[in-house]
Automatic annotation (TrEMBL):
Name the UniProt record assigns to this protein: Transposase family protein
All copies of domain H repeat-associated protein N-terminal, residue ranges: 5-91
UniProt xrefs under Pfam families: DDE_Tnp_1_assoc
Length: 103
């Protein structure tokens, strides 16, 4: 399972008029930024601006990139427990595939 697929499991809680930036896109750019060592909203925004072409390999970012304020606001709406469970399930899916390949 691709990591991008896990972000589709996160429920959108914003009203439709506030959905300029899809929650899956925001989650992906934050997780990608964290993996690359960026851990504050300013750094995440700079990472995204410098890597927009790479990010678009995974999601379209049709409306461009959100500001650091929008990123932070959207991330605060996500239930950490759900994101944690999705990431754990994603890593377990790779463990399962690895075990099958060893047999």
């Amino acid at each position: 399972m691709k990591i991008t697929h896990i972000f589709n499991g996160i429920e959108e809680t914003r009203s439709t008029i506030n959905q300029k930036y899809p929650v899956a896109e925001i989650n992906f750019l934050v997780v990608a930024s964290f993996i690359c060592g960026y851990s504050n909203w300013h750094a995440i925004a700079r990472f995204c601006e410098a890597n927009i072409d790479w990010l678009r390999n995974f999601f379209p970012y049709t409306n461009g990139l959100p500001t650091r304020h929008n990123i932070a606001r959207i991330i605060r709406l996500i239930k950490p427990k759900l994101l944690n469970e999705l990431l754990i399930n994603w890593t377990r899916s790779y463990q399962s595939e690895s075990m099958k390949n060893q047999l």
